[in-house]
Design a protein that fits this description.
With 1334 residues, this protein is of the alpha/beta class. Helices cover 27% and strands 21% of the residues.
Length: 1334
């Protein structure tokens, strides 16, 4: 086995990777371990006994496994991505998940995936001893100290400490100073700044430098490679840290001491201000005298080591050393700089006589300087400025231009010479509790870069302030430590308290800035009209605001203010949930809303949802009518069910509407948090639990809720009387038709259930009153005893419907809103899932059941199905009829609906368990133990080879652990298990012959191992079969049949030979190698076999491909293999065949007889079409057409393929059943015109097929390929589309031209973070579009 470890970074990173490299070798001692790195870092492992080969660039070797460190981006951005894909059978990449985890831990995780379970090995560094002929250090009079100023490159300038010369002068009294470094340091360090006698060692190799370090007394350096080497060698090491994270980059070793400043902005690695910082205070304020004193203080007895502090070390810089003690146990020295701090308050003022004097008095109490931007005050305000000596600068402006004035304020703040800034409006007062002493304490601490205050809005007078959602006191006023990049935002649409580019953490306090701007209602009204007159659509900075919030009292909630109060009321937390979903999905959010209120009873929860839409005639707000947990509800302007691009984002059509809705709502109210409930993430969970997962909640109760009022219930009683029913009548609620027709329940099956109920004295209420349902299907169940709510005569609200459902004894219905509403009412509910997925939406109230077909079960996430064992009745096929539904009703309600029932419910399997029972103890025991390292390995490899077009065969399925895991990623799953008590899916016992064997009842064998009759206590006999006799086809096979799988392997050789991947428990590599697999051991007990069918004679490939990308092995494309063998000149890359896979499905349509393939080049596609009996015209202006013409001439079977040079302009319009633009539009400058021109040749009813490159972001023509595929030359011009551009340039123009999009737009893009991303192993993916001309 050949393993490649890619570490494309510096010396320190290589040192931190050596523990993982040792662990990898320990876990795979027989493997050949190669490290790909760069100079000089590879010198760290030059003589490492655990490394077999070292390379500095990609070679021609083929590797079984590539392990990518967290440092590989530069390598992969070159030709690395393509090289790894073609030269490495498998690839695993380390990922930075938590920036506070040590770098070595990420690499150790790679070793742990290979089975390593020990402690982290010690770091390793290669050393090369030398004598005085190389570097004379044996003559040093005293022990020597090494200083390492080695981060001189501009990229890492922020890590460099500027005071090494000064430190050398402080240490030279008793120590010999040696400087180390590379050629860069030799060229850049000014030796004249260092003490006389300082020795340099700039010309040594890395192993020689390591040897020199190993001989020194102690080492001082910043976060760089030599520091990591010193630590690894066990030398007392003093590491100076600033911008980088200690937790991630700490040198590995037992004698390491970290010296750093406590600054609010440090560390900035992985923070927003990393790129904007230009001062590097974390290093510039780390003064040399304190570093020297800190170093000397760490030794037990300075006299004993001849290091008594010289007079020069008496601190003269104004620094304070903060340490709990000087004991050896502490290894992190914090230094906090103390310097003269000052506060400047900047104020924007215009005609502020009512409040200006009080505001300036409060500012003078705390500020060093007051700066004024006066916007043309004319009411006497300017005369008051003379009363305040701290006003040091006044800038005057004219005309109401807030962005301009904010820019002026920023400028005068920068020029003030103060270190802290604060902005204050003329109607704002700094409360008396904030005094100068408190402000100085804030300025002299280095933990936070900004202090946040609550902004309290007084209303009507100075004794009452607002605590409602619109005006409650929030932390949006602050004082901040100024830096060159920090500034007040000048955009007038933002809160004036927002400051950008703060460097460091913030501190929220309950100190208050009082806002008196709304005390005078008349003045407030005048200001509102002024803003309304200025802020209008004609203004360049129009915000779209109405400013009604300045006087609106709709949500008014006041609290009393007293300055002497120790604490104040700040209002309740508020949340807006955006639920743009159908009624059932919205109902599934109600358990989470109830749980949130239980955790925080004072939280104010509001909801924004759909109003009336094209798909339904009720508003979402009706679901929350009378709900005690909801504060307010808002209707969206969207008139349809929106869709989502991702877990967090609406599609681009709906985004502007949602944003406008939010802008409208938040004008009069504000929320602490706005959360989009997408239901797109956490697909392994039921949708009820998905909502809860967005809040990190585990629901104590998953019961949905709806709250009909007493008047709704009275209406329901009156309604029953009107149709001559009383409360004693047995009532069944039935719903058949859904707005999404595939979810509907079969008409005949529903009618049979209704008839059976009516025959047994029940009355059925049928919920088919929606007029849209009549348009889809006019049939309705008409039986005596069945009342159809179409005849109700009035449009029912949700709560009236719920009141009527609440009277019913049971609800039976399709997967739609009435089913969820019945479940929310708490009545027994039976959901019919003929084609939909029960795992996501099945009712979860305690007396509910889902009846589902295998199709729905197979599409459900395994975690959901496993969690709901006992709630699912499994049937083989649809329709789900009375023979199943009636027994379930009998069991659920404990009633008898006629002795002639066709089947007992006990004969129906509920997901492998007896009907309506909870999981047994045996299942729980098995589930709890199913997490060994070996079985985790199996699950990992199943994930590697997952493919939606493949079938997974689980032999020895047990309770279906692996089957349920595979259901997510495989298109089809077949589970075989001999013990029907464990798994009902496919009951067979496999061996190498047909005979009778027995199941053991021995504890630990889980009731399924096949044994000899004479050895064990016998349970029951079972007939065995050969796997080959079952005539099954599977791409991936897992065999787990106990201690001896050999009989199963012998009886299934033909089936196994057709498979791509086989995993066998207790097997050997030899078992699978004999069947043509490349085999290896994985985990403790399992063997993996992988077949590479691309290795065919004369089939030219650049390297082996994993099965995930082999579209040629699909059973419906058998002709491609002989074509590729016969014509190696053609393009046959399986990645391209994936691009065409959707087209192959359409080719089978008989009406598609004639094809125009534009820009076909050397594609195999026209040849394949000709073999399928299609007439094909291939057009391409390129000279490759001559090659194709020559190939066609060789074979009569391609006579229907016509080759033509040039363009399509001389063809007749509407001539072809299908026009193909495969990998064309990205290569033409006028792509929109090209696709419009191509539509002219499509017949009425014909199709246009477009396949093009697709990526995360749009790259303009003509440089896309040259920007992405850097390892090849001679690229033709191209662009790469993203979603927005493909709609703008391709889809929308074709729709406007009269073409109709068939099906969904099909995007496939590469996930660069996932090396096992199986659909496409390229650098980008494809977008496939199908249009029809009607």
């Amino acid at each position: 086995m050949r393993i490649l470890f890619i570490m494309d970074q510096g010396v320190g990173n290589m040192v931190m990777a050596t523990p993982a490299l040792q662990a990898i070798k320990l876990s795979k001692p027989s493997a050949e371990l190669t490290v790909l790195g760069r100079e000089p870092a590879i010198g760290v492992i030059r003589d490492a006994p655990f490394v077999d080969r070292i390379i500095t660039k990609a070679d021609d070797t083929f590797y079984d496994l590539a392990l990518l460190s967290i440092w590989n981006s530069e390598f992969m951005q070159g030709n690395g991505e393509e090289w790894v894909r073609t030269h490495c059978r498998e690839c695993v990449q380390a990922q930075i998940v938590n920036p506070n985890s040590h770098e070595a831990e990420y690499h150790m995780a790679l070793a742990q995936q290979l089975g390593y379970e020990g402690e982290m090995p010690a770091p390793f560094v290669s050393i090369e001893p030398f004598d005085d002929s190389v570097f004379a250090f044996s003559e040093f009079k005293n022990d020597f100290v090494i200083l390492s100023d080695t981060t001189v490159s501009q990229e890492w300038e922020r890590k460099r400490w500027p005071y090494f010369p000064e430190l050398a002068h402080l240490l030279i009294i008793d120590e010999q100073i040696v400087l180390i470094g590379s050629t860069k340091e030799k060229e850049s360090i000014d030796l004249s700044l260092y003490p006389e006698g300082t020795i340099t060692a700039f010309d040594l190799s890395l192993p020689q430098t390591a040897f020199l370090i190993s001989q020194c007394k102690y080492f001082v350096g910043n976060d760089s490679g030599p520091t990591h080497i010193a630590a690894a060698l066990g030398i007392p090491t003093f590491a100076l840290f600033g911008a980088t994270r200690v937790k991630k980059n700490r040198p590995l070793g037992s004698q390491v001491r970290i010296i750093k400043l406590d600054l609010p902005c440090s560390p900035c690695q992985y923070e927003s201000w990393w790129e904007t910082c230009s001062e590097h205070d974390c290093m510039n304020f780390l003064m040399p005298s304190r570093v020297a004193l800190s170093i000397l203080n760490w030794f037990d007895d300075p006299m004993e080591t001849n290091m008594s502090p010289p007079p020069a070390l008496v601190p003269t810089d104004n620094f304070q050393v903060l340490r709990d003690s000087l004991s050896e146990t502490s290894d992190l020295i914090h230094l906090i700089p103390q310097k003269q701090e000052s506060l400047a308050i900047v104020m924007r003022i215009k005609d502020a006589m009512p409040t200006i004097r009080e505001s300036l008095e409060s500012a003078s109490r705390v500020a060093d300087k007051i700066l004024v931007c006066d916007n043309g005050s004319s009411d006497g305000t300017q005369a008051i400025y003379q009363e305040f000596e701290k006003i040091v600068r006044i800038e005057r402006t004219e005309g109401l231009d807030e962005p301009r004035d904010r820019r002026v304020m920023n400028q005068i703040l920068k020029e003030s010479g103060c270190t802290w800034g604060m902005m204050l409006d003329a109607d704002e007062i700094i409360e008396a509790k904030i005094d100068r002493k408190q402000v100085e304490a804030w300025m002299n601490q280095w933990e936070h870069a900004a202090i946040l205050f609550r902004h309290v809005h007084f209303w009507g007078d100075k004794s009452h302030y607002r605590i409602d959602q619109r005006w409650k006191p929030k932390h949006n006023r602050l004082m901040w430590r100024m830096n060159p990049e920090s500034h007040i935002l000048s955009d007038r649409r933002t809160n004036p308290g927002i400051v950008q580019n703060l460097k460091g953490r913030t501190l929220e306090t309950d100190f208050v800035i009082k806002h008196y701007g709304h005390i005078d209602k008349a003045r407030n009204e005048t200001r509102k009209r002024l803003w309304q007159s200025i802020d209008n659509p004609s203004h360049r900075d129009w915000t779209g605001m109405t400013y009604e919030h300045m006087t609106d009292e709709t949500m008014l909630k006041l609290a009393n203010w007293r300055d002497t109060d120790a604490s104040h009321e700040w209002g309740n937390d508020s949340l807006l949930m955006i639920l743009m979903h159908g009624g059932g999905d919205v109902l599934m959010a109600t358990p989470t809303i109830e749980a949130l209120k239980a955790v925080n009873p004072n939280m104010e929860i509001s909801v924004m949802g759909l109003g009336e839409t094209n798909e339904r005639d009720f508003k979402t707000r009706e679901i929350f009518e009378n709900n005690p947990h909801i504060t307010a509800y808002y209707d969206s302007s969207i008139d349809h069910h929106p869709t989502w691009w991702s877990e967090e984002q609406f599609n681009e059509v709906d985004v502007p509407i949602i944003q406008e809705d939010l802008r409208r709502i938040t004008q009069l109210t504000r929320f602490d948090k706005v959360l989009y409930i997408t239901l797109q993430g956490n697909r392994h969970l039921h949708r009820i639990d998905r909502v809860a997962a967005d809040f990190g909640l585990n629901l104590p109760n998953r019961q949905m809720r709806v709250y009909p009022s007493s008047s709704d219930r009275r209406w329901a009683s009156r309604f029953l009387s009107q149709i001559n029913l009383t409360h004693g009548t047995k009532l069944a609620s039935v719903h058949r038709f859904c707005g999404h027709p595939p979810k509907s329940w079969n008409y005949e099956a529903c009618e049979a259930v209704c008839k059976r109920l009516v025959d047994n004295g029940w009355t059925v209420i049928l919920w088919d009153q929606d007029l849209r349902e009549i348009e889809h299907e006019s049939r309705q169940v008409k039986l005596n005893g069945v009342y159809n709510m179409r005849d109700c005569g009035e449009a029912l609200t949700v709560c009236k419907t719920a009141a009527l459902l609440g009277i019913c004894d049971v609800h039976i219905g399709a997967d739609s809103f009435p089913m969820h509403l019945a479940s929310a009412c708490g009545i027994p509910t039976i959901g019919i899932f003929e084609k939909t997925v029960p795992g996501e939406t099945m009712p979860l109230n305690v007396n509910s059941v889902a009846i589902a077909t295998r199709a729905g079960i197979n599409a459900s996430a395994p975690g959901v199905i496993e969690g709901e064992m006992g709630r699912i009745v499994l049937v083989n096929d649809s329709p789900i009829g009375a023979d199943v539904v009636i027994p379930v009703i009998e069991k659920l309600l404990r009633v008898k609906l006629g002795v002639e029932a066709e089947s007992e419910v006990s004969e129906i399997q509920l997901d492998g368990l007896p009907p309506l029972l909870a999981p047994t103890g045996e299942h729980e025991k098995i589930k709890a133990s199913w997490d060994s390292s070996s079985e985790r390995q199996v699950r990992k490899y199943l994930g590697y080879y997952a493919n939606q077009d493949w079938t997974f065969l689980d032999i020895g399925a047990h309770i279906g652990q692996y089957s349920q895991f595979a259901l997510v990623d495989f298109g089809k799953v077949i589970a075989i298990e001999p013990n029907a008590n464990l798994n009902p899916f496919f009951q067979y016992a496999l061996s190498d012959e047909t005979t009778t064997q027995y199941l053991t009842s021995v504890s630990g064998d889980s009731l399924r191992t096949m044994v000899n009759m004479a050895r064990w206590f016998l349970s029951k006999p079972i007939e065995t079969s050969r796997l080959d006799d079952l005539n099954l086809y599977a791409d991936v096979i897992k065999i787990d049949v106990g201690s001896d799988p050999a009989p199963v392997l012998r009886g299934g050789q033909e089936t196994l030979k057709r498979a791509m991947v086989v995993i066998v428990e207790n097997g050997t590599p030899a078992d699978l190698q004999g069947l043509g697999f490349q085999a290896q051991q994985i985990g403790e007990h399992h063997t993996l076999g992988v077949r590479s069918p691309l290795k065919l004679p004369r089939f030219p490939v650049n390297g082996p491909y994993d099965p995930g990308e082999l579209e040629l092995v699909k059973p419906d494309l058998p002709e491609l293999i002989p074509l590729a063998e016969a014509f190696p000149e053609l393009q046959h890359n399986p990645l391209k065949w994936f691009e065409l896979s959707k087209l192959f499905e359409l080719i089978k349509e008989e009406y598609l007889c004639s094809f125009l393939d534009i820009g076909s080049g050397l594609s195999v596609l026209p040849f394949y079409l000709a073999l399928e009996g299609k007439r094909v015209l291939s057009i391409d202006p390129d000279k490759t057409q001559n090659k194709i013409r020559a190939l066609v001439a060789q074979e009569d079977r391609f006579k229907s393929l016509i080759i033509q040079d040039g363009t399509v302009f001389d063809l007749q319009p509407q001539t072809f059943d299908a026009v193909l633009l495969i990998s064309v539009v990205e290569h033409v400058a006028n792509d929109t015109e090209t696709v419009i021109e191509a539509t002219k040749f499509v017949k009425q009813g014909g199709i246009l097929v477009i396949s093009t490159d697709f990526y995360h972001s749009y790259i303009e023509y003509p440089d896309a390929n040259r920007k992405i595929v850097l390892d090849r030359t001679g690229h033709c011009d191209s662009r790469i589309y993203d979603k927005a551009s493909i709609y703008e340039r391709i889809i929308n123009p074709l729709l406007e031209a009269g073409m109709t999009l068939i099906g969904d737009t099909d995007f496939e893009t590469i996930d660069m973070r996932d090396p096992y991303y199986s659909p496409v192993r390229g650098l980008y993916g494809f977008a496939r579009l199908f249009f029809r001309r009607w």
